[in-house]
Please model this.
Amino acid sequence: MARALFKDWFVDFGPTRAKAEGRAPYLAPHLWDLFPDALDALDDEDKPVGWTTEPLLDHARLISGGTPKTDITAYWNGSIAWASAKDVSQCSDAFLIETERSITPRGLEESSTRLIPKGATVVVARGATTGRYCLFGAEMAMNQTCYALTSLKQRPFWLNCAFGFLVQELVHSAHGSVFDTITTKTVQQAWVTISKQELIFSFEETVTPLFTRIHSNLEESRTLAQTRDLLLPKLMSGEIRLREAEQIAEAVL
Model:
């Protein structure tokens, strides 16, 4: 729903087209009034009057990752989630909330990886799954096959949606001898359509509850799965009875 809304507002310019054609408003008045009344006839992209294009990195910070040395056991199996290209590419939800591997604080401190904040948009930058992306559902580290984008203006979901409509362009611009590779230069050359700041803020305010609900559902699903995995062997062995299991599950929820 959030991405469909973004497409209508910032890609297809639906409200402005409707205004220009004299059609009835289909948004709340306070939102409708934020859209220009006409498209710019002199603009090659038919953007609304007054809208511009700006570099993506005027609105986002680009962060790279790293990998602690795999032969040093003190770096691994710690408390810090560490995302690989596999984790990102296989994430079927909007948010990545679990990773296959984890690292220790020492592994973080003594390698080139760094903590990426919750809400960052993370994309696979090289390999067979170049261009796959998701949001980090928690603070995590990541490896060097990924890039993270964090909003410079506290608009992570607008940034995520904007990136979603740019990513195929980035992949087509990527290069590599074996697999496509998105480089820093590739991202530096990406541009986004910019409206009034009030409209971008209103979009963020509108879609934040949607993304928050998705994240909450994923966390709840994970908790239920963990509870199931804990209780099922005990039920099968007769260690606890069904009523006891139900009470435990109710306490978790």
Remarks:
- The mean pLDDT is 91.
- Residues 197-237 form the longest helix (41 residues).
